Amino acid sequence: MSSQKEYLEQNKERFVEELFELLRIPSISADSAYKNDVLKTADAVAESLRKAGAENVEICETPGYPIVYADKIVDPSLPTVLVYGHYDVQPPDPLDLWTTEPFEPVIRKTEIHPDGAIFARGACDDKGQMFMHVKALEVMNQTGTLACNVKFMIEGEEEVGSENLGWFVSRNQEKLAADVILISDTGMIANDSPSITTGLRGLSYVEVKVTGPNRDLHSGLYGGAVANPINVLTNMIASLQDDNKHITIPGFYEDVQELSDAEREAMAKAPFNLDNYKKALDLSDVDGELGYSTMERASIRPTLDVNGIWGGYQGEGAKTVIPSWAKAKISMRLVPHQEPGKITELFQKHFEAIAPKSVKVEVTPHHGGLPYVSPTDDPGYRAASKAMEDSFGKTPVPVRSGGSIPIVALFEKELGLKSILMGFGLDSDAIHSPNEHYGLFNYYKGIETIPHFFKHFAALKSE
Amino acid sequence: MSSQKEYLEQNKERFVEELFELLRIPSISADSAYKNDVLKTADAVAESLRKAGAENVEICETPGYPIVYADKIVDPSLPTVLVYGHYDVQPPDPLDLWTTEPFEPVIRKTEIHPDGAIFARGACDDKGQMFMHVKALEVMNQTGTLACNVKFMIEGEEEVGSENLGWFVSRNQEKLAADVILISDTGMIANDSPSITTGLRGLSYVEVKVTGPNRDLHSGLYGGAVANPINVLTNMIASLQDDNKHITIPGFYEDVQELSDAEREAMAKAPFNLDNYKKALDLSDVDGELGYSTMERASIRPTLDVNGIWGGYQGEGAKTVIPSWAKAKISMRLVPHQEPGKITELFQKHFEAIAPKSVKVEVTPHHGGLPYVSPTDDPGYRAASKAMEDSFGKTPVPVRSGGSIPIVALFEKELGLKSILMGFGLDSDAIHSPNEHYGLFNYYKGIETIPHFFKHFAALKSE
User: Fold this and answer.
1) How far is A195 from chain B (nearest CA, A)?
2) I need a surface site. Which of A11, A76, A190, B206 has the fewest CB within 10 A?
3) Which residues form the Peptidase M20 dimerisation domain (chains A, B) (predicted)?
4) How far is CA B119 from CA A222, A248, A265, B403, in A?
5) B320 and A307 in contact by Cβ < 8 A?
């Protein structure tokens, strides 16, 4: 057994305990009520990096939440790996659907995780995966096997669009200088079929408000004579997609990168079972854009989803009211080479254009993110591939993910660096959902794999 | 000055104070959290009837909230007027739009009410209008001018569909025996143009739930591949009306009573100013069924309004989620001779039929109510017309209202009695809305007019 594996074996219980401490802090960046908890989490991350052997640990202030920086330079002549992760989490609601408290981590066995999984908000996204890198550093440090230099950049605003990361990166290009960026904030196909994410969707997120009468009205006295903002909003949203689930916003598909048949065939080879997929979600049928497979709809095609809608009376019983307004949160996932700013503008222009004269419409852009595609032939990808081979005994397959990590495009632009998306989560981990969890197998496997990446990357760079 | 008018003048401040006490109790029948307050209000109404001179005051239990009964039989050979009203109120939300507390009544002057108006939930609908009858009884009693027998039936479930009133009425036909029913729970055109409501719309109210995946999903990993319950719900609701705002539910218009051109011409004569109407609601335009005027859309045509909608993330910031479900409360106003039970069935059948295979749909009927048309040539209507002539110095015009008082149809069926809808509210009173209010002028005018009705009704019946 290698010294690294031995060290991991001897300390695995403690590694879980330390992660639990991090998971207990509700670092919800979307809700300002949790500001102190987010800040507390930054401190905890910094402290854990110090303990793991990092040097120059700093909590770097930004106009928003701070970014935790740390590094360990073993030899300036060696290549440098910049690790990115985030310490903030999604809001936990709906709370009533959690089996156990979102911020009181527990271990439960599941069908997919017979060795047990850690249930807590952020267990997988991204505290659990980020913390693997902290523990991997400890392993390499304690076993004297750190094969190249390492830098950490852990932010606290990923779940709200990394609004100040660009500000920070552009001001610290020298500090962040590296040869590759390594990120574990994605998933793999299954515990017995490792994969590396080579593509991500971008994001455009807007909030819309439709206002009708200047006050709530009695639906008997005014019903039929005054436009109902909820009815109008449902009409407007419905009109944004046609019967083939094609998005009707003029110019929306203009820049969409169409995949070649060869690429689509390659995608179709990835293991996927539609019946299991439907069964896992308790769906009698899937639904999506005509002419594309479920895998394609979820990765290489843009989307338009209403993430939230509200207006009028939502309480017990029946209230006969025409509300003064109705609101919705709408997000569009983007694919290469759609540009979030442009899509948001197209949406806003179109949404305002289709509004009937009987209402007022407001469109408020939230955050956006660029889509991304990574190469599969550079030292970074090859090192990740070999590292997973070492730990899984299998060559990982490259896959496109439907999720968004807006900042990988930003890193490329600001730092001229490619990001390697070596994630260890599973789609079934329920990130952004109640009962989010992360397999102990995956957590340990990550801590085992990361040092292999460092070893192979150093070697490949010195070739 | 008549003895009645004199008594009113001498006691008007107290009459307002006593109403304030009733308005301070939050008798919200739709929300079970206010159960004790609703019951407390029943007691207060009973006590006020006793003080006003009523006999046989009873709080009659029902499977739901109790009904307050009282009577004063001056002479069995005289005709009897049965007064109906309700002591429950609508929920006050949205609370943040109230200028003063909904259950702390205050008097403020407004453009339409230069003498001042009482601001409070229930000020007009219906505590204020119901209490006019209690005070009118006191006036007639104290001045020895009660011209015929009177019975009171004040319920506590009107705002939730009077679910147990039918149960009560069918069991107490003898107790409730009368010659006419008098109700003040409607409005008039303006303080200088009195009117009497001769028609009401019916109501069918349903709650719908669209369920997609068995849990909230990450909109990046699943977006585009799984039907989003909110998108589906907006599509389904939008499809319930065509571009001409015609309702698309098969059979919906089957029983709709079409008015003759003559009737429509008569309606068009009622004073109405579209610009003022739009200005009062801050609307750049009205919207409704093609081929009908605003007045017609709001009274003689059926409607379909979403009274509330909710699903997904409604908090601060952005959450990229595909929710597991979305819900809406939908009400349809009905016109003679549409039948609520039948319409609810048609809705449910259609809504389930148009649901895509990718979701599950539940339709839960709330309450319903039959539409109603009252005659204008019987003693009841003529007595009301003469009574308003006496107090306003103007003959009131008959108008159709868009609102619903489901129980007037029930009274006709169970008691064989017509209801006279002599209301003193105004459309601008904001009933069911924040800042509901009721003009002092209207409150006093009602107390002045009701005894005239008794006098004229007794006379007309003895002709």
Assistant:
1) 15
2) A76
3) 199-357
4) 21, 47, 69, 21
5) yes
